[in-house]
C-alpha cells in the first residue's frame, strides 16, 4: 500500500492533511516517518483526523452487532481483546469496512520481543522486559474471550473468514495496538462548547486556554502546559480490569506514521470535540523529521512496545550514549531476601507494607538516586520489634533516613539485583565495542543496550551507596580497625537496638 493511496483514502473520509508542508519518507532504521517539505512554524496544523475515523470499540459497529450484553459477558469490554476482535472483523469485511485501506497499510511483521525466538529472549534475562511481554496473557484472552464470542455467532464470523481470526493474526493486531494506538478520551467539553464548534467550523477552538486556528498557524507556546490535552502513541498499558480505558484505546490513521526519539518531539496530537489535530510544537526546518512523542519511555519499554531503542548523549558515567529515561526496577523481595529478620515478623512487615505503601517494586532512574520508598521499606524490615509494633499501629511509613545498616542492606540488595543478569557490565560493554558490535544480530544488540542501560544505573547507585556508607562510617586506617569497622557494619540494627536499650 503506497502512502499516496493512504492519504487519498484519508482525504476521502474527511481527513485534512497539509501536503504542502509535510510528506512521508523512509528513514533508515526508523521505517516510514513524516518530513517537513518547507520551514514550518510552531503551532501549525499538520493534519486533522475526524474522531469517527479513529478505530476503536466505540467506532466499530461490531460490539453493537454482537450485542452489548454478549460483548460484556465475553469480557470483550476489558483489556485489548475487544479492539483486536474489532480490527480482525473490520479486516475480514474487505472494502466494505471504512478502515479497509488503513488496515492494509499497517505492518504485519514486528521486531518486538513478542516475536523473538527463546535464544534471543534469554539475552533479556534480568531486564524489565521479560515479565511484561504478555504473550501467555494474550493467548489466554484469545482462547477465553475471543474464540467463544466468535463461536456463538457464525453469522458474523463465518467459517470462510476463518483465516482472519487465527491466533497469529491476533498477535499481529495486538502488536499494532501496542506500537501505534493512542489513548483517546471522549470529548469532555460541555454541550455549549460542542455546539459552538458545530455551528462555526472555522472558529478558532480553544485548547487549554490557547487559541488555535482550525487549519493554519496557532499559538502553541508551550507544549508542556498543554500536556493534558495531548495524546501520545502507545500511551496505554492496560490492566485487564479496566473497562473505561479499554474503550479509549484507538488506532489513529496518519498520526501513527510519526516516529519518536527521546527529547526530540516537535509535533503533538491535540484533543478537540470532533477532531484530533496534529500541531507543531516547535519550528521545523525543511527536510527535518517530524517527531511525535511516545512519552519518552526507557529502552526496556521502547523495545517491548516498538521494537527499537533510543540512543542519545548521556553523561560519561552512564556510558556517554544511552537513554536518559532508562530505569532499573528492584523487586522488594530482593531486599527481603538479604534482610536477616525472623521470618514470621518479616512476613507481617511485608504484608503491612503492601497494604500501606502498595509498592512492591522500586524504580531507580538515570539520576542514580536511591528511591525514598526503598529506604523506607528497608528501614521497616530492619527496625527493632518494639519500633515495628509502634509503626504498625500508627500506620505511618518509616522515614526514608539512611544509616550504615540500612545502606548495607541496600548495597546487598543492589548487588543481588546485579546478579539477575547472566553477563557482567564489563562483558556487555566489550560486546558493544565497534569491532564486536557489527557481528551482533539486531535483537542481541538491542538486548545488550537495554540490559547495559539498567546495569549502568545499578553501578551508579551502588557507587553512591558506598560513598554514603563511607561518609557515615569512615574506613579506619589500621588493619585491626578495618576489621572492627567491618564488624560494626555487619551488625544488625536489631542488635544495635537491643544494645542501646541495655
Ligand atoms: C507509530 S509507528 C511510526 C511509523 C513507522 N515508522 C512506520 O513505518 O509505519 C512506530 C514504529 O516506528 C518505528 N520507530 C519509531 N521511532 C523510531 C526510532 N526512533 N528509531 C527506530 N524506529 C522507530 C518503530 O518500528 C515503531 O514500532
Automatic annotation (TrEMBL):
Comp. bias regions, Basic and acidic residues: 484-494
Domain (SET): residue spans on this chain: 20-295
This protein's UniProt keywords: Methyltransferase, S-adenosyl-L-methionine, Transferase
Superkingdom to which the source organism belongs: Eukaryota
Chain segments annotated as coiled-coil in the UniProt record: none
GO biological process: methylation
Pfam families given in the database record: Rubis-subs-bind, SET
Keyword DNA damage: no
GO cellular component: nucleus
Spans annotated as Disordered: 468-502
One of the record's GO molecular function terms: protein-lysine N-methyltransferase activity
Listed name of the protein: SET domain-containing protein
Annotated source species: Daedalea quercina L-15889
Taxonomy of the source species: Eukaryota, Fungi, Dikarya, Basidiomycota, Agaricomycotina
Amino acid at each position: 500500500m503506497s502512502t499516496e493511496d493512504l492519504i487519498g483514502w484519508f482525504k476521502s473520509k474527511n481527513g485534512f492533511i497539509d501536503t504542502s508542508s509535510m510528506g512521508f519518507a523512509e528513514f533508515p532504521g526508523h521505517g516510514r516517518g513524516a518530513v517537513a517539505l518547507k520551514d514550518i512554524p510552531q503551532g501549525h496544523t499538520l493534519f486533522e483526523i475526524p474522531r469517527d475515523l479513529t478505530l476503536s470499540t466505540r467506532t466499530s459497529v461490531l460490539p453493537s452487532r454482537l450485542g452489548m450484553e454478549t460483548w460484556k459477558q465475553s469480557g470483550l469490554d476489558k483489556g485489548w481483546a475487544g479492539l483486536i476482535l474489532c480490527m480482525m472483523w473490520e479486516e475480514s469485511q474487505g472494502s466494505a469496512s471504512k478502515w479497509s485501506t488503513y488496515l492494509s497499510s499497517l505492518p504485519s511483521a514486528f521486531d518486538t520481543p513478542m516475536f523473538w525466538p527463546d535464544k534471543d529472549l534469554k539475552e533479556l534475562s534480568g531486564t524489565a522486559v521479560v515479565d511484561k511481554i504478555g504473550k501467555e496473557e494474550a493467548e489466554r484472552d484469545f482462547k477465553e474471550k475471543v474464540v467463544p464470542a466468535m463461536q456463538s455467532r457464525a453469522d458474523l464470523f463465518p467459517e470462510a473468514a476463518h483465516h482472519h481470526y487465527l491466533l497469529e493474526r491476533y498477535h499481529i493486531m495486538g502488536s499494532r495496538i501496542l506500537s501505534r494506538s493512542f489513548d483517546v478520551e471522549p470529548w469532555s467539553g460541555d454541550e455549549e462548547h460542542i455546539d459552538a464548534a458545530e455551528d462555526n467550523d472555522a472558529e478558532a477552538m480553544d485548547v487549554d486556554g490557547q487559541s488555535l486556528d482550525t487549519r493554519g498557524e496557532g499559538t502553541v507556546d508551550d507544549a508542556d502546559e498543554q500536556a493534558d490535552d495531548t495524546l501520545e502513541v502507545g500511551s496505554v498499558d492496560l490492566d485487564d480490569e479496566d473497562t473505561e480505558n479499554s474503550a479509549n484505546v484507538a488506532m489513529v490513521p496518519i498520526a501513527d506514521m510519526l516516529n519518536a526519539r527521546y527529547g526530540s518531539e516537535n509535533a503533538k496530537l491535540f484533543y478537540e470535540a470532533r477532531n484530533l489535530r496534529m500541531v507543531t510544537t516547535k519550528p521545523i526546518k525543511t527536510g527535518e523529521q517530524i517527531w511525535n512523542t511516545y512519552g519518552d519511555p526507557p529502552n526496556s519499554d521502547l523495545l517491548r512496545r516498538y521494537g527499537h531503542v533510543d540512543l542519545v548523549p548521556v553523561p560519561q558515567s552512564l556510558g556517554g550514549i544511552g537513554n536518559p529515561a532508562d530505569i532499573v526496577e528492584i523487586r522488594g523481595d530482593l531486599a527481603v531476601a538479604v534482610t536477616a529478620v525472623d521470618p514470621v515478623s518479616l512476613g507481617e512487615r511485608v504484608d503491612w507494607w503492601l497494604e500501606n505503601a502498595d509498592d512492591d517494586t522500586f524504580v531507580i532512574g538515570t539520576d542514580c538516586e536511591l528511591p525514598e520508598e526503598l529506604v523506607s521499606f528497608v528501614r521497616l524490615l530492619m527496625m527493632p520489634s518494639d519500633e515495628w509494633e509502634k509503626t504498625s499501629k500508627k500506620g505511618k511509613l518509616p522515614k526514608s533516613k539512611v544509616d550504615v545498616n540500612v545502606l548495607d542492606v541496600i548495597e546487598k540488595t543492589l548487588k543481588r539485583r546485579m546478579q539477575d543478569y547472566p553477563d557482567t557490565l564489563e562483558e556487555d560493554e566489550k560486546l558493544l565495542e565497534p569491532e564486536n558490535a557489527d557481528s551482533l544480530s539486531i535483537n542481541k544488540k538491542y538486548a545488550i543496550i537495554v540490559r547495559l542501560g539498567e546495569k549502568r544505573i545499578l553501578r551508579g547507585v551502588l557507587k553512591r551507596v558506598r560513598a554514603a556508607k563511607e561518609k557515615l562510617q569512615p574506613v579506619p586506617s589500621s588493619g585491626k580497625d578495618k576489621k572492627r569497622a567491618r564488624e560494626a557494619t555487619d551488625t544488625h540494627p536489631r542488635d544495635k537496638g537491643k544494645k542501646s536499650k541495655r
